Structures
1.
Amino acid sequence: MSDTVEKPPVPQDFDALRTAILERKGELPKRLTQVAAYALDHPDEIAFGTAASIAISAAVQPSTLVRFAQHFGFDGFSGLQLLFRARLRERTSSYEERLRTLEQDGAALAESTTIFNGFVAAAHRSVDAIAAAVDPDAFERAVTLLAKSDTIYLIAKRRSYPISSYMAYAFGKLKVRCQLVGTSAGIDDDMLAMATSKDAAFAISFSPYASESAAQARMMASRGIPVVSLTDSAFSPLAECSTEWFEVVEADHAGFRSLSASMAFAMALTVSIAEKRRRG
């Protein structure tokens, strides 16, 4: 009998590569994990950049990029990079084309109008991306899980807090019991301590991740309380402790990111939960 270990197949497209990274991330050395996180968080930069520029952005040596590619069966980094370029070709380019047009016409517009158009275009790209990224089956599982809970604990800080705050407002109007975590009295941990296995949590955090939100989500999960989360990377601390998690990467304009896709997702989840409860 042969003792040869069969090697995993070489990923043939970006989705297959992403799946392989997530399945094997626990076995990756520290530097390769660093490259994996950067690749999934910045796929466009991987597609367009040179090995040298990508290495600088990912804070690794160019040779680490080669080792990362070879770990997943490619001869070199350029072979892996082809998957990222193919991903771009397959994506709808309408919004990118709109933004380029806006930038080209910007000189003829007032500065405030250019900024407005830029943010609108970024919002379009964000919403378009999350529409394609969310798995309907996973979304349905998350809705079912949260709808059957007695109380939904909403965990968020900093940039994510407006999302949970608006969800709390909407849940109140829809007569769904929830608890917004993040009080000025500083009793968040005491509040979460009242949660039971009949409850659930929805946590939100984006890079740079709020350590308090991650700790609270981990604490809830360790007590057997299911956690659903919205975050921006498979390497987010929320992904590790969540029963279901969803990835949204907001497009930016001039370095500023809105919450367009995140808010759309949150409201769809909120209304779906209320509807699921109404139908019993």
2.
Amino acid sequence: MDATATIEDRMRAAMGDLTRAERQLASHILTHYPVAALGSITELARASGVSNPTVVRLCQKLGFKGYPDYQHALRSEVEAMLVSPLAKHDRWAGGVPDTHILNRFADAVVANLQATLGQIDHAEFDAAAALLADPGRRVFAMGGRITHAMAEYFVTLMKNVRPNVTLLSGMSNTWPPALLDMAAGDVLVVFDIRRYENSVLQLTEMAVEQGAEVVLVTDRWMSPAAAHARHVLACHIEAPSAWDSTVSLLVLVETLLASVQDRTWEVTEGRLKRLEALYARSRFFRRHR
């Protein structure tokens, strides 16, 4: 077995050799990776609908002595993933191939896109798009320190597609008034990638208490907010930089927008025509001469 392979990689590679119960367990872990396997063995077995011995057998098939050994390795991987920009830079700087940064960065971004689009379940994506297209639901969006820009971009364009779309501030003193307007069935789109922020989790929990449905856009290591999300869309984000790349998140956002637009075109077309008329009246855009 490749010593550099992650636990996630090893689990996916072993799928074909697992029993039905072990596959059921592995699928549950991968769907909620890595959060599902950070609790007790009893909690994991109950959540995945298998027995404790099944958990132990899967761990052994992956090359571990048992669940404690597996969980220790998983926690070590998670700790390595939640690194600061300084540590991340040092890791990428070691053993860098002798090619230009443009090539190295492009290779990483393209690989992220391929991995992201290859692992997202189409049914999950379509279900999230259907929620966002439902005219009976208001849509709210928020992000963290880095991902707030992604939430703002999402809201800016989604406002053109459909009505009742609101960007939530990262300032906690603005949440209570926003939550007053959040009703059961409304949708909260959450953007949260490592290092996961307590404020994002807190607002997610409060929104769920209001009855909101959460669509989470996160990385492949899963924000803690995943425990409260109805739909989770995980992206690959690693890049040869002190910071992670959000390109795959951007592509996912634009694809979601396109899907919602297709579902709501009868309404969206009229909104866009009215919007263009308002832009023309206000002379918002410069004319080419």
3.
Amino acid sequence: MDKRLRWLNNLMCFEVAARHQSYSKAAEELFISQAAVSQQMRQLESNLHVKLFHREARKMRLTESGKVLLSACQKGFGEVINGLNQVQEAPLDGELKVSSTQAFCALWLVPHLFEFFKLHPGINVNVQGSNRIENLHDGNIDVAIRFNTSSTGLTDESLVIERLDENDVYPVCSGDYLSKNAINDAKSMKNARLFSLAYENKVDWESWFEFAGVEVTSNQLRKTEVTSSDLALSAVLAGHGIMLASDIMVGEYVRTGQLVIPLDIPHPVSWKSHLVYAKNNPKQKRIAVFCQWVKENLIRTQGPGPL
């Protein structure tokens, strides 16, 4: 056996550091100190007599030799993991931990889970609502349902990323609110109480008004920011204002008449949804069943046309 395989721990550390292009993020994933990561990388470079990284601002960029080694490590570790999964693959029944945004968990996932349990009573799904990008390598989350305004940048050799859908965003409010407020065009929306997500700078009211041809500044809008769409929805259902929302979140409320679209003007940016899970997760049978159920039921619960 090649004596260089004695450096296996260093190579595993290298794969994580190279994937993140960061010693600090590698330290977080490996539960060791940043100094320990740095030391292992120095040892590996010394043993190989090649430079693997060079610092560029706050990132550790790979050299050409580093890129070659990363590709080889990921292929090699992937084959080992595939073999381990074949001999240790978890059975279909058991626990599955799923993460998504607080709003999606509250508005779609949890209300529909009873249908999944009817079909698969042996799979127990635990749900974690979080607006953070959860780590899928530490075993705390098996499947993440993520929402982005762009699919570019969603690349990670260690993850499976399945595109779910693309959802247009429209203004919605209650019929009662619409009947009590004169909303005839986009300009008249400037006087409405608007609910928006805090820290969201792409699917926001300012860009909706710009797309609709109305000049506004943020100070001119009667805007209330919330940290999750389900909070905005509770206010909008009670007749307190208007929110921007996609079909995946509020389509059923629109189709049952609880919400209406005051103006048929979509937001210029749409939400892209993805299923994400680790390639080396041994719960592949459970993950496959759950992901297929999500894909089938998201399509079933969305209607034709705007929302």
